[in-house]
C-alpha cells in the first residue's frame, strides 16, 4: 500500500513562496500552509501574507517559537492569529537572551525561529515522516535546490525564473510592496553588509530598535573562537561598524555598491529565507526539538 503524504507549504512571505501557495492550492486543494513569524520582518511582508490568505482563500497556520530559557532544554511553539503578526522583535530577542547574538558562521536564528517550530508543529499534527514539505525555491536558484528526503520545491512544478515571478505578480490584484534589501528579517545576518547599510538608511527607526535590542544587557555573552559577541556580519562587522563604514556614502552610492556586487541577483537571501535551504548542514533527525 502506497503511503499518502500530507503536503505542507512552508510559506516564507516572499513572492516565489506565495506563487507556490497559489499553485498548490489549485493543484492540491488539501494542502496545508504554515508561516513562521520571527517578529523581525518588515511590516510590508505581513501585509502581503494577509493578502495571500484573503485572495487565495487559504487556511494559514502562523507559528512563533516559545523559547525555554534554560540551556540544554528544547524550545516549543505557539500558534498565533494573523492579527498577531507584527514587527516586535520578541522571538529574536528571546533567542538572543538564551544563545547570544547569531552571526554569519552561526546562523542558528533560522533553525531556532523557523525550522524547529515548523518541525515540532508538523510532527505533532501529522506525525513524523507523514508529510512532504514544500519550499518556494525557483528553477534559477540551483545552489538552493538541494535534494532532501521529505522536501519538494516550486521548481518541481513550475519553471519560472525570478523575472517570470515578478511578471506574474504584476498581473495580480496585490503584490509584495517592498524593496528587495528590506525583505525577510530586515537586518538578517545573511545579507551583504551593503544591503544592511541600505536598510539602516531606509528604516532609521527599525535600525534604532535593533541597536537597542543587541545592546540589551540581558543578551547572553558567548565567547566564540571566530566571532566576538555582537560581531554578527560578514567581514567581522557588527551592526554599528556597518553603519559607521557607510556613513559617508550617499544612498545612491550604496545602491551602486550592491549592483556592482550583483547582490540583487537570483538566489540572494533577501528574496526568501526558507527553513531548509538556509540550514543545509542541519540534521533534521537530530536534536531535542523532534
Descriptive report:
The chain is α/β, with parallel strands linked by helices. The chain has one domain (1-290): HUPs (Rossmann fold, 3-Layer(aba) Sandwich). The chain is 36% helix and 12% strand. It contains nine helices and eight strands. The chain has helices spanning 15-27, 43-56, 90-99, 108-126, 162-170, 193-202, 204-214, 239-245, 251-260, and strands at residues 6-10, 32-36, 60-66, 76-80, 131-135, 151-153, 231-233, 237-238. Helix 6 packs antiparallel against helix 9 (251-260). Mean pLDDT is 89; it is low at 278-290. Pfam families: PAPS_reduct. It comes from Gilliamella apicola. GO terms for molecular function: catalytic activity.
Can you summarize this structure?
GO terms for molecular function: catalytic activity. With 290 residues, the protein is α/β, with parallel strands linked by helices.
Keywords:
Rossmann fold, disordered C terminus, 290 residues, six-stranded mixed beta sheet, single chain, 9 helices, alpha/beta, 8 strands, globular, two-stranded antiparallel sheet
Per-chain topology:
Elements (H helix, E strand, L loop, with lengths): L5 E5 L4 H13 L4 E5 L6 H14 L3 E7 L9 E5 L9 H10 L8 H19 L4 E5 L15 E3 L8 H9 L22 H10 L1 H11 L16 E3 L3 E2 H7 L5 H10 L30
Parallel strand pairs: 1-2, 1-5, 2-3, 5-6
Antiparallel strand pairs: 3-4, 7-8
Helix pairs in contact: 6-9
In whole angstroms, the N-to-C terminal distance is 27 Å
Which percent range describes the beta-strand content?
5-15%
What oligomeric arrangement do these chains adopt?
A: single chain
Helix content: 25-40%
Shape descriptor reads globular
What's the helix count? 9
Give the strand order, joined by hyphens, for the main sheet: 4-3-2-1-5-6
What about the largest sheet?
6 strands, mixed
CATH superfamily: HUPs
CATH fold-level topology = Rossmann fold
Which secondary-structure class do the elements indicate?
Answer: alpha/beta
Average pLDDT figure: 89
